[in-house]
């Protein structure tokens, strides 16, 4: 009898301890997830997950303290497992995929991405699906499980991470120190710009930035238009859009077969600007190349 009373007090004390730990974990999750700009749905899902684990821990503690036969525990867990397995196998697969995306972070909120044939800006990452605003303005929801089976291209570059990644295979003497890559380091002459240009190439002018979106796409042109005319027209349009994107789009010829294929690169700090101006940018290039005057030539 005395031992049962003692177990009750132990159970109450440990239960309060578990509840405090759960509250601390929920607070930590709230704080860290907000810093990563994740959606309220993700936060709610993680809170629920933590509370479920806490509840399971309390039940296991109850069974242990009061010496509930292990056969009863196994029976209950087996029935519960079968029920959960049949009821929510697909849901759990989506949640697990969502948690993997959140932890692995192949992309984040407001990154500009391409997932298979879907290109656009990530608006929200839930436990079950990811919401993307496409270039044409349409909103699509992609199941997280589908995303894990897809080819992902993230056009938004975290510049410090990119510098580190591109230096992984360099010798120590060839590396550029990240702590010097800032305006103060530049003023004090601590940056080896020749090394930095070799590492960053076309991203060198963005070395001081936290992130930049580098959106790359192909544009095909008929071969009956003279090459010098094509370059002149594309150059004019890119120059006109320099104030729009804050940086002049770049282009180069990458293939010459049935048609001439140009690779065009848009550099921009905000994917919103790309989404709002991409269609007009393409239309202006097309109009410049295929206007009545050019066709008549």
Describe this structure in words.
The protein has 297 residues and is α+β, with helices and mostly antiparallel strands. It has eleven helices and nine strands. The chain has helices spanning 2-35, 40-65, 70-104, 144-148, 159-166, 183-187, 193-200, 227-240, 242-245, 271-290, 292-296, and strands spanning 112-115, 118-125, 129-134, 139-143, 152-154, 156-158, 211-221, 250-256, 260-268. The strands form two sheets. It has a five-stranded antiparallel β-sheet with strand order 4-3-2-1-5, with helices on both faces. It has a four-stranded antiparallel β-sheet with strand order 6-7-9-8. Strand 8 (250-256) and strand 9 (260-268) form a beta hairpin. The chain is elongated and about 95 Å long.
* Principal-axis shape: elongated
Number of strands: 9
Main β-sheet, spatial strand arrangement:
4-3-2-1-5
Helix content: 55-70%
Quickly count the domains. 3
Q: What is the string of helix and strand elements?
A: HHHEEEEHEEHHHEHHEEHH
Structural class: alpha+beta
Are there runs of 5+ residues with pLDDT below 50, and where? none
Average of the residue pLDDT scores: 79
Query: Per CATH, what is the topology of the largest domain?
Result: Alpha-Beta Plaits
Portion of residues in beta strands equals: 15-25%
**What Rg is obtained from the alpha carbons, in whole angstroms?**
28 Å
CATH C-level name of the largest domain: Alpha Beta
Count of helix runs: 11
Main sheet characteristics = 5 strands, antiparallel
